[in-house]
Design brief:
The chain has about 150 residues and is mainly β. The chain is about 5% helix and about 65% strand. The chain contains one helix and eleven strands. Strands 4, 5, 7, 8 and 10 form a five-stranded antiparallel beta sheet that branches. Strands 3-11-6-9 form a four-stranded antiparallel beta sheet. Strand 1 and strand 2 form a beta hairpin. The longest helix is centred in the C-terminal third of the chain and has 5 residues.
């Protein structure tokens, strides 16, 4: 990524002098120099059934560190049951979603205990992100949130 700086410089004219005023010069950009913002993709709440959150506009950002934080679990879970959290990016033309994070893949199966996991996105290509979750088990309840530190 580049940003443009303004340069004012006079170079010899008439006897070889030329004036360059307000020329645009590309300057390297370090992501560390840009502002960040905390963003909530899914607020902490107890969930007892599968569902999905709303689309969250993250267009102004270029990267993110996303925290999937499960803070309370109750219920009985057989093998293959529990909570699955998915973070998705939305294609604005088709309206279809692409999986960016899947707790099944990241954690090796369904979540059945309190846990925290992280997703690093170094190039944020989607304007909208959303969280989707699947819940199974006997009287399951999961309190979780999906939040992040986003950089612009």
């Amino acid at each position: 990524m580049v940003e443009y700086g303004t340069i004012k410089k006079a170079i010899e004219n008439s006897t070889g002098k030329t004036n360059i005023v307000d020329a645009q010069v590309k300057v390297p950009v370090d992501i560390q120099d840009h502002w960040g913002e905390a963003v909530t993709l899914q607020a902490s709440a107890a969930q007892t059934a599968s569902g999905n959150g709303s689309d969250v506009d993250v267009e102004r950002f270029v990267m993110a560190e996303i925290c999937i934080d499960v803070t309370a679990v109750s219920g009985t879970f057989n093998a293959g049951e529990g909570l699955r959290v998915i973070v998705e990016g939305k294609d604005e033309i088709t309206g279809k979603y692409r999986t960016l994070y899947d707790s099944d893949s990241s954690l090796g199966g369904k979540i059945t205990t309190v846990t925290t996991d992280w997703l690093t996105i170094t190039t944020l290509a989607f304007r909208y992100l959303r969280v989707r979750w699947e819940i199974s088990g006997s009287t399951p309840s999961f309190t979780f949130s999906v939040t992040g530190q986003f950089k612009a």
